[in-house]
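Good morning C.,

I know you're traveling, so I'll keep this short. The sequence:
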Amino acid sequence: MKSGPLALRALVAIACASFPLLIAARGSAQESDGLEPDWRRGTKRRESPQNWAVELRFGPYYPKVDDEFKNGKQPFKQVFGDGGHFFIGLEVDWQALRIPYVGSFGPGFGWGYTSMSSPAKLTGTSTDSAETTSLWIMPMYLAGVLRIDEAARELSIPLVPYAKLGLGYAWWKASNELGASNYNGIAGKGHSYGLHVAGGLALQLDFLDAAATQQLDNSVGINHSYAYFEWLYSDLGGLGGGQMRVGTSSWVTGLAFEM
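The C-alpha cells, ready to paste straight into the viewer:
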C-alpha cells in the first residue's frame, strides 16, 4: 500500500473521529447561557484538572525484516513488496510531572497493529503460487513522553513539539493456509523487542472554536484536542540475537486529546 492512499485514509479517519465531538460540543455551547467564555475577556479559560493524554494513530508501516540478511536476500520484499502497510494504534500517556516553563513529562504506553498478505512464491522462483502467505505484527512500547506545551498554555501559540524514548515489544506471526509457516526450520511466530524513539509536532485545535472547547471540557473533561504528525523509529528485534526484525522507521498522524 502506498503512502498517498494511506495519508488520505488517515485524514478521512481523523475527520470521522473528530466530527461527532465537534458537533456535540458546538451544540452544547449554543445551548449555554450566552456569556462569552473567559478567553474573550483576555483571561485564561477555566480548565478541569489535566493528567492524561490519549492518541489515535494511523500511518504506513515498513517492517525491517530484510535488514537482518547480509547476503543480499530479501525474502520479505520478495513476498510482500516494499510498500507501506496500513497501521493503526492507540497511545495513553500519564502526565505525571509538570516541568515549569517547559511542559509535561510522564510514562506512555502504546499499542498498534498491522497486517499484510500476498500470494506465496513457488520455491526458488518469483512465480506466484495458489497459496496465500500473511504476516501480522502487534507492536507495543513503554516510553517517557515530554510535551513542550508551555508556550501553548501561556502564550496561546498552538504548536506543541514533543519527544518519546523507551523500549518496544512486538508479537508477530507469519502463516499460510496450513497454519504458522516457517523459514529454514524456524517457526514463523514469536516476539521481538528493542529501542523506541519518536518525535513530532502537534497542532492544538482549541482556536477553531473556543466556546466549543470550553463546553467539551465542562461536559466530558477534555481540556485540549490536537492533530499531530510524528516520525518514529522502532528497532524491534535489534536487541539480542535470534529475533526477527519487525520494527519500522516511518511516520504516523492522528488525533490526540488531553484530559
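Safe travels,
E.
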